[in-house]
Amino acid sequence: DNTINSVGTLAHELGHSIHSYLSNTNQDYLYHGYPIILAEIASTVNEVLLADYMLKNSKDINEKEYVLNDFLDSFRGTLYRQILQLGSTNMAKLTDEEIQIAIDKGWNVS
Predict the structure, then answer these.
(1) Known active-site residue 13
(2) What is the pTM (predicted TM-score) of this model?
């Protein structure tokens, strides 16, 4: 739909595609998979490259401000989601006793 958001989504998804392609073609089947947190690195790098390109090539200050704001907001969201994902993955490895200790301390374990 010719929006900056659409271009950003395309760059993000292309990062996943390139990462999967390179992993599948350069790793034995046993090692070609990867955790989601690693998958997000390639897609986030593509977002950084796109924002860098757009900031360097735009002549309009309003567009630059929009791109920078959109990038920072998206990056913040990505970091937040990945920290939550990492936390929930680690929580799945805890014993029932460790989870009860966390609950007793008032930690959110859901």
Answers:
(1) yes
(2) 0.69
